[in-house]
Amino acid sequence: MNERENGGQEQKKPLKIQDNTFRDGHQSLFATRMRTEDMLPLAEEMDRMGFWAMEVWGGATFDSMHRFLDEDPWERPRRLKELIKNTPLSMLLRGQNLVGYRNYPDDVVRAFVEKSCQVGIDVFRIFDALNDFRNFKTCVEVVKANGKHFQGAICYSLTERRMGGPVFNLQYYLDKARQLEDMGADTICIKDMAGLISPYDAYKLVKSLKEAVQVPIHLHTHSTSGMASMTYLKAVEAGVDIVDCCMAPFALRTSQPAVEPMVAALYGTQWDTGLDLEALLEISRKLEPVAQKYVEFMDTTRVATIDVGVLQHQIPGGMISNLVSQLRENNNLHRLEEVFADLPVTRRELGTPPLVTPTSQIVGVQSVLNVLFGRYRMVANQVKDLCFGLYGKTPTPIDPEVRKKALKGYKRGSEPYEGRPADILAPELEAAREALGDLAKTEEDVLIGALYPTTGKEFLEKKYGRKE
Ligand code: CO
User: Fold this and answer.
1) How far is CA 129 from CA 168, 239, 308, 392, 436, in A?
2) Residue 447 belongs to what domain range?
3) Cα 220 to ligand 1 centre (Å)
4) DSSP code string of 420-462
5) 417: CATH
6) 85, 91, 340, 367: which sits with the fewest CB atoms below 10 Å from its CB?
7) 359 CA distance to ligand 1 centroid (A)?
8) Are residues 229 and 172 in the same domain?
9) Is 184 in the same domain as 166?
10) Whether residues 33 and 47 fall in one domain
11) Cα-to-centroid distance, 244 and ligand 1 (Å)
């Protein structure tokens, strides 16, 4: 039997792979610290691999670049685009939150997405932490007007051990997918940021999605809990079209599964990716010393490369490190277990949001306050915004008592708002332009200041040599 014959009778359906090395890979493993200069030397070679897309921007990169790396965030996609000519460049966009932590008004969103198209982004993976797609509206208009690819993402979340229960059940995801298709999504992504999706749930979900919608299905997960590779295999068997991977030195642990074993595992099957394993291994070897440069940012506190605690508490990795630092600040680290116990309660009271930026921080901060000072004796400002409706509609109603406490004396009033959040947000772009004055030389500078008023301004001062 020929080695590529196994499964050869079935219809060929090559699995497509998106490479996330230059975004989620280093964001997950190395605190988003990878520098553009370390990407450029391998960019052309990566371009030749035949990835469906390369995710290179968005998520936390914009924040990290201007805040920690003193790099102009707009330069990265522009320079990569000069070298990566065949593979579409993808970014992760937090809907109306863009690459920040709150909903921005429409004028800022329009200008940001427009500029992102100009600097070379082809595929926009758009998500909203509440899966409230009204927060996609403005982004999608601009993406479509520029003829770019709109990938609608659904945040995968659970309240039970497996998919199901009253909130995040199969029907929930199918309804969301149909909504995205109606909005004109070119592809639909299941975004499992915490690595919670189990292999057989992935099978069931992908199979059902393939029947419910016409557009290709893309699966994004993390190896955090240890299930990801099994999950991809079952998703492939169910007919998933695209999966996210990273090159080995930037893969596994809290990152995505690696490209190389995925290609090897499917070799000779009906899902054979057609990617050249030898060529991939060559890049992998070259990426190893690059990753070594950032190893100081890797979590080496445990021997286990996976966090099996996720299987129990379902809290994403990034959120745990935030909780730990918040508790450590006031010498309360010994109360972490209490916070873990409180989290599901606080989450439910706040409308059962998926735990992803920024809701993971919002729920996490409030849970810590509840443990330290008594339930809702102190309410974080972002929780007030959430209770008012400024982030959108939560998957379940917010507890009325909690909402009453949170909105007492709230600046926008005590009556919650139910419309599209950005409809009540006043424009900000011109004010940002004025605040920066001659410090902003370009529209890109203005946007950095509009998104990040304090750290953005500091970055621009350094960029133009006004500050060391
Ligand atoms: Co991710």
Assistant:
1) 14, 26, 24, 9, 30
2) 429-463
3) 7
4) -GGGGPPP-HHHHHHHHGGG--SHHHHHHHHH-HHHHHHHHHH
5) 1.10.472
6) 85
7) 15
8) yes
9) yes
10) yes
11) 9
Residue 368 lies in a domain: yes
pTM check: above 0.90: yes
* Cα 324 to ligand 1 centre (Å): 21
Near ion ligand 1, which residues have CB within 5 Å? 24, 193
- 425: CA distance to ligand 1 center in Å? 29
Nearest to 243 by CA among 168, 299, 191: 191
Q: Could you tell me the distance, in angstroms and rounded to a whole number, from the CA of residue 25 to the centre of ligand 1?
A: 8
Do residues 205 and 263 share a domain? yes
pLDDT digits (tens, 9 = 90+) for 236-276: 999 999 999 999 999 999 999 999 999 999 999 999 999 99
The answer to whether position 69 is within a domain reads: yes
The tokens for 386 are 């959430």
Q: 222 CA distance to ligand 1 centroid (A)?
A: 6
Position 302 in a domain: no
Residues 392 and 434 in one domain: no
CA distance 40 to 21: 13
Which segment of 68-77, 86-95, 323-332, 370-379 scores lowest on mean pLDDT? 323-332
| Spacing, Cα 308 to ligand 1 middle (Å) | 18
| Stretch 69-92: mean pLDDT | 98
Same domain (yes/no): 280, 375? no
Q: What is the pLDDT of residues 154-191, one digit of tens each?
A: 999 999 999 999 999 999 999 999 999 999 999 999 99
The answer on 256 and 184 residing in a single domain is: yes
In the reported structure, the alpha carbon of residue 193 is separated from the centroid of ligand 1 by a whole-number distance in angstroms of 5
The tally of domains found in the chain comes to: 3
Would residue 383 count as lying in a domain? yes
Q: pLDDT tens-digit profile of 322-359? A: 888 889 988 999 999 999 999 999 999 999 999 998 99
If you measure from the C-alpha of residue 327 to the centroid of ligand 1, how many angstroms do you get, rounded to a whole number?
Answer: 25
Q: Are 133 and 260 within one domain?
A: yes
Distance from Cα 126 to the centre of ligand 1, integer Å: 12
